[in-house]
Amino acid sequence: MLSSILVPLVPVILCIGTGYLIARVGWVRAAAVPDLSNILFLLLTPALLFRTMGQVHLQELDFRPVGLYFASAALLFGATLAWAPFTTATAARALAHTFSNTVMIGVPLISLVYGPAGLVALFTLVSLHSLVLLTAATLVFELAQARAGADDGHSMARTVWQAVRGSIVHPVPLPILAGLLFAQTGLPLPEVVDKPLQMLGAALGPMALLLVGIALAHTRIGAHWRGALRIAAIKNLVMPSTLAALAWALGLSGPAVAVMFTASALPVGANVLYFTQRYGVMQEEVSSAIAISTALALATVPLALAAARLFM
C-alpha cells in the first residue's frame, strides 16, 4: 500500500527538486519566472484543459463532490473570519486557508494518481474554483475595507463584477467551458489539432512542477514564518480534515470525492498572493505561506493520498 502511494509522488518530488536545484545554481533566474508562468498558464494549461474536457459529456459530470469541496471551504472560510477581527488581513488568511494550488501541483498529481477520470473530476472543480472562491473573497475584502473606512469610493457591485468576469475570461475556465461545448457537438477533434494539443498538454505536468521548484528557490521566507506556518498547517491539514468530516457526515464517497479530498490537501494557490497585492495587505506573510505550504506538502500529501483511499 505504501509503495502504491509513494510511486506516483516520486516524479512529483524529483521534478520540484530539479526545478529548485537549477534555480539555486543560477540556470534559471528570478526574472524568468513570470515568462515561464505565462507559457504554463497561457499555452500548456489551456491545451490540456480543452483536450480533456472536449471528450466529456455534461451528463457524465457529477457536481456533488464539487459541492462538498465548496461547502468545506465555506466552513473553514467562515470559521477564520469568526475567529479574528473582521479586517482585510483576516480575509487574506481565510482565502489562503481555502484556496488550493489546483493547476501547477494539482493537475500533474491527480493525473499520476487518479488518471483521466480523476482529471475530469478535478477540472470540474477548477472550472468553478476561482469563480466561487475569488468572487466570495472580493465581497469579503470589500466589506472589510469599507468597515475600516478605507473604501476608495468605487462601487462594490463593479468590483464584484470585475472579479466574476476575470474568473471566467481566464486561461483556465475558458478552455474548460469551450471543451465542454465542443464535446456536446459529438464531433471528433481533427488529428491535425488533436496531436499538437496532446503534445502541449503532456508538457504541462513536468513544466508546472519544475516551476514550483524554481519559485521555491527564489522565495524568501523572511520574518513572517510563524504566521506563514500557521496558514500552511491549516491549508494542508485542517482543510482536508474539514472536507473528510463533512463527507462522512453526508455519507459521500467514491473516486471523485477522493479527488476532492486530495485537492483540498494541496498547498496555497498563487491567486491568493495576487489578492493581497491588490489590497495591499499580508503580501509577505502569504508569499511565505505559499512557499512553506508547498514544501510542507511533500510530507502532508502522501498522508492525504493514504487517507483518500478510504473514500474509494
UniProtKB/TrEMBL annotation:
Highest taxon of source: Bacteria
Coiled-coil stretches noted in the UniProt entry, renumbered to this chain: none
Location of this chain's protein in the cell: Cell membrane
Gene Ontology biological process: transmembrane transport
Gene Ontology CC entries for this record: plasma membrane
Pfam family, one: Mem_trans
Keyword Hydrolase: no
Annotated transmembrane regions: 6-23, 35-54, 66-87, 94-114, 120-143, 164-185, 197-217, 288-311
UniProt record similarity statement: Belongs to the auxin efflux carrier (TC 2.A.69) family.
Family annotation (PANTHER family): AUXIN EFFLUX CARRIER FAMILY PROTEIN, TRANSPORTER AUXIN EFFLUX CARRIER EC FAMILY
Name the UniProt record assigns to this protein: Auxin Efflux Carrier
Naturally occurring in which organism (per UniProt): Alicycliphilus denitrificans (strain DSM 14773 / CIP 107495 / K601)
